[in-house]
Amino acid sequence: MAPRPTRIQPASSQHATAGQGLKNRLMVALLSSSSLLAGTAVLAQSTETTTLETITVSGGDETPVGPDATIVAKTSRTASKTSTPLVDTPASVSVVTEKELEERGVTTLDEALSYTPGVVTDVYGSDNRYDHYMIRGFYSTGLSTFRDGLPLRVSNFTGSRMEPYGLQRLEVLKGANSTLFGLSQPGGIVNAVSKRPLDYKFGEIYTTFGEDHLETGADIGGPIDAEGLWSYRLTGKWQDARQGIDFSQDDRIYIAPALTFSPSADTDFTILSSYNKRNGSTSHGIPYGSGIDSETYLAEPDYDNMDTEEWNIGYEFRHDFGNGLEFRQNARYTHLELLYEGVYAGGSGVEAGRSALGIDGTADRFGIDNQLQYDASFGAFDSTMLLGVSYDHEDVREVRLDGYLDGIDINNPVYVGRDAITFYPAAVTDSTQKTASAYLQEQLTLNDQWILTLGGRYDHVDTVSEGTYGDNAATDAAFTSRAGLTYKATDEVSLFANYAESFQPMDANRSLLVGEAKPQKGTQYEVGAKYQPAGMDALFSVALFDLTQTNVAQYTPDYSAQYQIGEINVRGLELEGKVAMTNRINLTAAYSYWDAEIKDDTTPVNVGKRPQLVPAHMASLWGDYTIPGNGRFGDVTLGLGARFVGEVFADYANTIELPSRIVFDAALNYQVSENVALAVNATNLFDKEYVSSVDTYSNTAYYGDRRAVKATLRYTW
């Protein structure tokens, strides 16, 4: 890793002093809790003499947060913030269970979502900086990622990637949903559910090998005391790897201690903490149409870092007062530090012009969500009422350096080093956003057949930005609503319809905005059906939607100004099926169609065109089959998947069309013994080369990830 640039340090020294002290305290807390949990577990195990029976998790044990025994989830909390079966929910929800994450050997959030309808991943190819994805035609990375129901945002450049090994399931709630989650993109949200303590003993250790890839991890937990009042979980991972391109890196350290105290069936309190350190690289592209090898490195090896350190500490509290009244509270504090250093090449000649960018960022975020749920029955009606109050506070500081250096010969690159970069004076931006919200939801069921869902939410947002290029302060407020109706035609089939809204204020830094800032708002109309066959572990769904966002913000091609360009509409169809049959066959199938159109734009020529990077057709299919073991030979599972993304336009004027692509993945798992398994996973099996996006300002093309093959040896108990 290259040293931190001395040019950045003076501008951020005062802010870093406070952050360093906080960082040290958080690190001590994490390490102390990890040691305490591990030590307590060892002590408990050393004094335990009773032989425990094997515990099997079945579908009937499923909770709204997992863990799930198969790839098919039946319930979700994300869709309503209550424990509601998916077939009763008047919205489109896709769940990626821990079982599916394991079977496909997922290592990034992009990979986890790549077989989900209504979601496009690999938006910017092999860009390893953030978790890039698009939901229902709207780019959703910055504002629509949640963890355990609380926002986990990217503010300008200051953000990090999520570690899938720390997750128990992923839930995608599609469509506008600010009534539940406040500030968000209209396409939908991704809510990641953290691994948490379980009421039985378990554990695993694993090691993964690949080309320029080595990682190892462990996940252990269970009850601490004989009464089962206390339980723990400790998840950790270490990785030393690089991406497919020279001089790149993808190194990780992840530690996540968790502790649950359950004094009774009515009360539980869970502490969830994590340390997530990643040393990565910035995005790399080549001049579009140059014809050179897509893995040609045109940056500077000693000025290429995307390093983040993230500390999270939070809790979940639940108490059932009886008589249908339950209170829940979730809270989390996050401290994040970013070092971003990158050189970018572009142009159309043999010698590519180059620019440099450096960011020293810090973020402190706090979020809390209080929920009071009341369940009652009267006559033929069952009622679930939810009252919520939430608060989010975010402070972000970024010190930015822009620079330039000599061009580079794209056919024979020679690197000159970081000392050859000439930087302009640093620009400092401090921003604060405070959001206070209140929401109310009613789920009213008639004769176990009709389910009416009504909701409303009020958000009040104060945003302040102070910096080198000016100060900005704004207050935004909005009331958003939601209405849904589910009709259960039979116990297996349900029909649903919904109307929902979204609300998204402009970013804190509005220095480039032309005109008065207006909140971006979304509205959605949706109808659909779900089928959950009796006696079969499966779920099928279909949905039609019409989604519109107004006051859309967009930069000019040279990034010199920002306009709220008007209106974008996406109408679409989604199909999804997940089947787990006889413990031997798993199938996941998805198809999406998006009819996307720019309805209003400050650039008239763009009206009627398709929005940037939004495909019309997407499809995916994954299947795996288990061959039962015989004698001393264990089970063998073979898996194969295909992902199709239709052609897209790289610009809003629709002048650069990128071709469609189909990429194959595969998996092989051999159960060596009851406790030992060997897995081989391959992504982009046939090494497909394709362009994911083109930066039209710099004429830079960004390619998708090439083939990666990894082998994992895992021991479980």
From TrEMBL:
Molecular function as annotated in GO: siderophore uptake transmembrane transporter activity; signaling receptor activity
Subcellular location, record wording: Cell outer membrane
Major location category of this protein: membrane
Alphabetized InterPro entries for the sequence: Beta-barrel_TonB, Beta-barrel_TonB_sf, Plug_dom, Plug_dom_sf, TonB-dep_rcpt-like, TonB_sidphr_rcpt
Membrane topology: Multi-pass membrane protein
Keyword Iron belongs to the record: yes
Listed GO CC annotations: cell outer membrane
SUPFAM superfamilies assigned to the protein according to its UniProt record, in alphabetical order: Porins
Pfam families reported for this sequence: Plug (PF07715), TonB_dep_Rec_b-barrel (PF00593)
GO biological process: siderophore transport
Record-annotated TonB-dependent receptor-like beta-barrel domain positions: 264-685
Highest taxon, organism lineage: Bacteria
Keyword annotations: Cell outer membrane, Ion transport, Iron, Iron transport, Membrane, Receptor, Signal, TonB box, Transmembrane, Transmembrane beta strand, Transport
Key word Cell division present: no
TonB-dependent receptor plug domain residues: 86-189
CDD domains for this protein: ligand_gated_channel
UniProt family annotation: Belongs to the TonB-dependent receptor family.
PANTHER family with a match to the protein in the record: FERRICHROME IRON RECEPTOR-RELATED, FERRICHROME OUTER MEMBRANE TRANSPORTER_PHAGE RECEPTOR
Protein name: Iron complex outermembrane receptor protein
